[in-house]
Amino acid sequence: MGVPRWLFVPALLGAAFVLLPLVAIVARTPWSRFLELITSESSQQALALSLRTSATSTAICVLLGVPMAVVLARTSFRGQGILRSLVLLPLVLPPVVGGIALLYTFGRRGLLGETFDVLGIQVAFSTTAVVLAQTFVAMPFLVVSLEGALRSAGRRYEAVAASLGARPTTVFRRVTLPLVLPGLASGAVLAFARSLGEFGATITFAGSLQGITRTLPLEIYLRRETDAEAAVALSLVLVVVAVVVIGFARQSRSAV
């Protein structure tokens, strides 16, 4: 069955709306100074911090998000719909609101922050705060991706394994996880990409301290005020990294 021809017009307009700003960045990039701008000390520190914290937050998303997705997809209990909505809330919540919520949870006068303060642990405005902010906004991407993979995979093979005497942990480890591995990889890649581009919650909860909490998006925002060419060059770096990450995510999804 073919596609109605009139759909191509809004489709092309939509594609142009997304692609033209990227073309504008490429066109405005100061290529003669490109290497000099992206290899400055502050740029390298920001990029290294972004990659390090994004990798850490992605690992935390996997450790906590996989059990959460399995429970949501494989069980049924009262209030499950409400719990799912709350878990996915960071997807639609303004990042700055997420940052304020984290500040009032882990800050010095926050819900848990006072306990941490007694123990001599300072969470807010530290590299740990960057990881927590990135994990908060990225976790739903992994949960949504993996829960969808679990539901589409069905439970037939798990039922067969259980009928043969396999314990629930063995079924989960040797049947469930291999079945949804492409979905898990796709969710992890998307969580990494979201962590890499996180800005609002990070600047609210972690601040902008060079080498400690200033990630690449924050560096771009600050450079925009003092060196617009550097901001454009760093933006292009972030776009290229995001394109590569999305490419990996598409490969993972096509393998499902």
Main features:
13 helices, globular, 256 residues, cell membrane, MetI-like_sf, mainly alpha, molybdenum
Written overview of the protein:
With 256 residues, the chain is an all-alpha fold. The chain has helices at 8-28, 34-38, 41-74, 80-87, 95-106, 113-118, 127-153, 156-163, 168-179, 181-196, 200-205, 216-226, 228-254. It comes from Nocardioides aquaticus. Its main location: membrane. Belongs to the binding-protein-dependent transport system permease family. CysTW subfamily.
Looking at the structure, what is the overall shape?
A: globular
Helix content: over 70%
- Unreliable spans are none
Strand content: under 5%
Order of helices and strands: HHHHHHHHHHHHH
Mean pLDDT: 89
Q: What integer value in Å does the Rg equal? A: 21 Å
Q: Which structural class fits the helix and strand makeup?
A: mainly alpha
Oligomer: single chain
Give the beta-strand count. Answer: 0
> Distance between the terminal alpha carbons, to the nearest Å?
24 Å
